[in-house]
Specification:
15-stranded parallel sheet; 38% strand; 344 residues; globular; 9% helix
């Protein structure tokens, strides 16, 4: 969804850094193959030993922890937009697999207790996207979502809770005006308990807006708790993310070719930890575009020469959940190898 207050000037060039991969086990002591929402995955320990590649999480880490989606419901595979729309309606437990790239205008509403999975690396949606409105317990994984025409976002999370958005590829292009497409992933209207992990966001002006308006304090204050980890933002101009009122944990992400990266505003609290920024002008800002500044705490980041604008240091330093942040030195290798579709 669009929002006033972002400044768009000259684009920057992009580049990719290369660092040695550091592999870390995510789930020590887990001894069996886990199944979630119709996808099976080896434990992190097994995958590292067998292939040398870090395994995908089988459950979300961060504010979205505990999200189960459709759980072990029998999966339904769809190949048309009409079949998909029918399959994701309602609040019963369901797992819906999307096979093929489906064109749409606008957005499809996703019911509660739903897992949506793309098949392979190229299945998903183009021209519009998905909306979670007054939904709870939803997983969106392995979808290619491209070119969401305004006023539709690639994914909108609205008045919704317990959401896991993982291993998707969101993209558009920079060939049109900044308002030709809408946001890739927008979270608003008091949504809560959300994890955004291992996604690739590419070739877009407006990446991820959390909190749509400076005037929505009554609904948003105390909510909009979001974790972003191991995402790859490449040639995304701004909103990486832009957060109003809420509480955000942004760790182990790779931001490449941005004008403005993390933007904390309207009293939002952001912990920005162990991220890598390349070819980026402003890595983190707390004092742009809104009447009230935000707060930020920075630690362990590789800014790559990017500036920071921290007008107010925050108090959010210890997230209320277990996690392990890998050092910035290994983030580029991990994220470029594992973020996006086709990596589960």
């Amino acid at each position: 969804m669009n929002s006033a207050g972002d400044h768009f000037t000259t684009d920057t060039t992009t580049g990719i850094g290369h660092n040695r991969r550091r592999l870390t086990a995510l789930a020590a002591g887990v001894a069996a193959t886990l199944v979630l929402g119709g996808l099976s995955a080896l434990t992190a320990q097994d995958a590292d030993a067998a292939t040398g590649v870090r395994a995908a999480e089988t459950t979300p880490i961060g504010f979205g922890a505990g999200t189960t989606g459709g759980g072990n419901a029998t999966a339904t595979t769809v190949t048309t937009l009409a079949a998909f729309t029918a399959a994701v309606a309602g609040d019963s437990a369901k797992v819906v697999k999307v096979s093929g790239l489906l064109s749409l205008t606008g957005q499809v509403d996703i019911g509660s207790n739903t897992t949506v999975l793309g098949v392979g690396s190229g299945s998903g949606f183009t021209g519009g996207g998905l909306r979670l409105k007054e939904a709870t317990n939803v997983i969106i994984r392995n979808l290619a979502i491209s070119k969401p025409r305004k006023p539709s976002d690639g994914v909108t999370v609205q008045e919704s809770t317990r959401v896991w958005i993982d291993h998707n590829t969101f993209s558009a292009d920079r060939d049109h005006d900044k308002d030709y497409y809408d946001g890739l992933l927008d979270i608003n209207h008091g949504s809560d308990d959300i994890t955004v992990s291992w996604n690739k966001f590419a070739d877009h002006f407006k990446g991820s807006l959390v909190g749509h308006s400076d005037k929505n304090a009554a609904e948003d204050t105390g909510h909009l708790k979001v974790t972003y980890h191991h995402n790859w933002f490449t040639d995304v101009y701004s909103r990486i993310p832009s957060l109003r009122f809420g509480t955000g944990h942004f760790y182990d992400n790779y931001v490449q070719g941005a004008d403005t990266g993390v933007h904390s505003r309207m009293g939002a609290q952001m912990l920005v930890e162990n991220n890598v920024f390349r070819d980026t002008k402003i890595a983190v800002t707390t004092n742009r575009s809104s009447d009230v500044d935000g707060y930020a705490v920075l630690r362990g980041n590789d800014l790559g020469g990017a500036a920071t604008e921290i007008s107010r240091t925050g108090t959010f330093t210890k997230p209320p959940y277990a996690y392990t942040a890998e050092p910035a030195s290994s983030v580029v290798a991990s994220v470029t190898a594992q973020a996006g579709t086709g990596k589960l």
